[in-house]
Amino acid sequence: MQPHDDHHHIVSAYDLELAHLRSLVVEMGASVVQQTRTAAEALTQSSHSNASAVINRDPEIDAQSLAADEEVFRVIAKRQPTAIDLRLVLATARIVGDLERAGDKAKRIAKHTLKLLEAERTPLVPEQALEPMRRLMDIDCELLQGAVAGLVEADLDKAIAVFQADSRLNDASEQLRTALFDPAAGLSGDHFAGLLTITHALERTGNHANNIAEQVAYVITGEDVRFRNRELLIDSLSNWRRA
To answer: Minimal CB count within 10 Å: which of 51, 108, 220, 224?
Structure first.
């Protein structure tokens, strides 16, 4: 084999390793989205089996997180990536952390759902809060999927779309809180506290999606965009894309 053939073989193997790392993130992202949906459905449908399924599947998320972390360490140790590849590997490690924490939020929702079911709180969610809660869950899942796709496809537009959805996320959260605080909902004590905890978990899931989108922007542009004003950031990234 000629020297240039050796180089081509090494590069191809490296590309495969990076592709494998991306695939681990995709798999983990899909699992977290499923967990989030199932946890929310357990609550809105008063389903003991769905809530238990989320808790039972949580170790799978942890295992996926560990596998992705090990692959990150292996790639760094073996390849010593530089420039954009290094950004990709470091960002992937951060994304895995956010996905793992989003999975924890799904487990938290499931655990509180089981507590409410055991306390025979019926209905678990007041009628006026059902639609806002479903909307918030749908937005969470949409943003998680879009943010992970942005990494895999190196698509800055998908990261920008996540940032642009901030107002939708905040509106859905505010509508849900308003519904829960409405005296007509008849909530009090542990029931009220449990639903507020679940609401916070759903809000934080959306925040994790935003964190992932920030890492996508970092990989593509080379700029650390954390803690940036969202409107200014969207304008900046849109200009960068057009340049």
So the answer is: 224
